[in-house]
Automatic annotation (TrEMBL):
<dbReference type="InterPro" id="IPR002347">
    <property type="entry name" value="SDR_fam"/>
</dbReference>
<feature type="domain" description="Ketoreductase">
    <location>
        <begin position="8"/>
        <end position="212"/>
    </location>
</feature>
<dbReference type="Pfam" id="PF13561">
    <property type="entry name" value="adh_short_C2"/>
</dbReference>
<dbReference type="InterPro" id="IPR036291">
    <property type="entry name" value="NAD(P)-bd_dom_sf"/>
</dbReference>
<protein>
    <submittedName>
        <fullName>Short-chain dehydrogenase/reductase</fullName>
    </submittedName>
</protein>
<dbReference type="InterPro" id="IPR051122">
    <property type="entry name" value="SDR_DHRS6-like"/>
</dbReference>
<keyword id="KW-0560">Oxidoreductase</keyword>
<dbReference type="InterPro" id="IPR057326">
    <property type="entry name" value="KR_dom"/>
</dbReference>
<dbReference type="GO" id="GO:0016491">
    <property type="term" value="F:oxidoreductase activity"/>
</dbReference>
<comment type="similarity">
    <text>Belongs to the short-chain dehydrogenases/reductases (SDR) family.</text>
</comment>
<keyword id="KW-0520">NAD</keyword>
Amino acid sequence: MDLGLNGRTALITGGSMGIGRACAEALAAEGCALHLAARGAEALDATRADLQNRYGVAVTCHPADLTDGDQARALADACPRIDILVNNAGAIPRGDLWRVSEPLWRQAWDLKVFGYINLCRAVYPRMREHGRGVIINVIGAGGERPTLDYIAGGAGNAALMAFTRALGARSLKEGIRVLAVNPGLIRTARLESLLRGLAQTRLGDADRWQELVPRTPPPGAPEDVGRVVAFLSSDCARYITGTVVTVDGGATAA
């Protein structure tokens, strides 16, 4: 299906691996030029080479630490015309109220919560000047059913869901759509890291993490999220804004 995205430009944070890379691949396959931001220059360069080779699109890399608001604003300045912004960078650690220290909590929120907010604040006015644009915040299903053992992540995700709904509720009149995608458990290095921590806590052995992989439903693949992001970025979804789409195989609804 041709989504009509050929020739558009997307900025994707956390775009060198996992879900961010899957979003980059889905948009590259549709003919989008890409700006990819992440902390690691080496992984960015490898992703750029692969996507350019396979899809023939322009890919520009931006090594950046988006916990720093100045770097987020500099990233926006380096990408003067963005049709699609995919906020994806950030991982908030598991732990209850007492295990997640204040410095760790603040650092995680600086990247995922304030990182998303800072880029939206910088990119939205530029989209408004051009009369069109799409912002997609990749958040996480942990915000839909917050739990004590993921309290910092659940609270941060819930805040971003509310932020997305508030910003997207009135954005269409300016030609802009603001949406969120909430992935459930997706087979990434991040999932393995989380399950290793749980296995160490619950089973006393991090190497037994695969015993904790859910079976109903099983984890999805990064491309399951990337394809949804590509569709929502397109004019096929032109009347969808202020909405949070959950991609979790039905786990949250069970």
